[in-house]
Amino acid sequence: MFVSxxxxxxAKGHLTIDEKxxxxxxxxxxxxxxxxxxTQIRENCRKFRRSFEEHxxxxxxxxxxxxxxxCKAVCRIAQEEGMGLDVVxxxxxxxxxSIGFPAERIYFHGNNKTPEELVEALRYGVxxxxxxxxxxxxxxxxxAASMGKTAGIMFRVKPGVDAxxxxxxxxxxxxxxxxxxxxxxxxxxxxxxxAELSHVRLTGLHCHIGSQIFDxxxxxxxxxxxxxxxxxxxxxxxxxxxxxxxxxxxxxxYVPENDPAGLETYMGRVSAVVHGECGRLGLPIPFIxxxxxxSVVGDAGITLYRVGAxxxxxxxxxxxxxxxxxxxxxxxxxxxxxxxxxxxxxxxxAKTMEVTLAGRCCESGDLIGENMLLQPAAPxxxxxxxxTGAYNYSMASNYNxxxxxxxxxxxxxxxxxAVRRETLEDMISHDEL
Length: 433
Description:
Elements: E1 7-9, E2 15-17, E3 20-21, H1 22-29, E4 33-37, H2 38-56, E5 60-65, H3 72-80, E6 84-87, H4 90-98, E7 106-108, H5 115-124, E8 128-131, H6 134-147, E9 151-158, E10 180-181, H7 186-196, E11 200-206, H8 217-237, E12 243-245, H9 263-281, E13 287-290, H10 294-297, E14 301-313, E15 317-322, H11 331-335, E16 341-343, E17 353-358, E18 367-374, E19 382-386, E20 407-411, E21 414-419, H12 424-428
């Protein structure tokens, strides 16, 4: 019935997440409110771990892509569930370090890491730095030399595979700000240069073709391309690289008509390509890494809002205004992302009201969705927007000086604050007269 397994309806007809009544959560913690199911997050992590055992004999690891949602509590869950961690900034690294995340299981990404970030990565002993370009390679080698260290690295490679997704979240094609290109010879040039340097150790290759991808074919093609390049690297340089990171981008269900292939289909088909190509090319099976983010936390989260004004423009539309908006969920403004929503008190009733769900910011484009079907709603009702666990809190802002909502984790019948609600004092805490 729902887009997520952690959601249900109780005897009162109210929406629940795990065993918690969402109206009670809204009453206790206020709105807007992000709510995350810890049970769902942990089960999603375990699915990846089980799948690696089945399809690669445990010769691999899923890295939680923390950009999807990074806080201490979620990093701790990923650590406890045996995941690695993908970080892209000093802030994400600092969060991981604050809870003692094992440095050897951290992979540091980014197309323009600052020298300061590279120093921090080396200081903490990050296991692998995913180098984006030759300039970064040279800078990293110099910094590592000055610190008396050797950096373990992978190169981010553009495999030339175009995933069928939104332009802003396609990253595998040649016209991308990320990575070194195969077509131009840049990737091989980077590998050869790394082999000459004394303070970097090239251990593998990385690619990522985009986000919210439903079709498995592009993932299979990317694996073929990358394995052939591993074979070419061995032939040209004598290096047998031991790791291959195939990135993330697995789609989730935001609305009922979304039809993602599912983890087992992805892992089965891509692992078949990996084993087949390695056999054909005479390569040892590399240690396989993937980077799920959205597919770990996306369906585990909902956002609760309270309805303010209901404005009907005859013959045009009905605006249902809520106490949040683009400050806590910018994805509609960015990508025209679609969501399922419902009135929490009438979760099992028919959706007979078509609305534009509008935010509170001074922007005409501050919408969460248009032409959305809801149960009949009135001022004071709580509206739940589903599948908001990824790229909502992490991309939230203080536009209009609106404080960011808290994040509450639920586990069974228990709830706790994982990130506190910002206050008005927080809004001015960095101001100087």
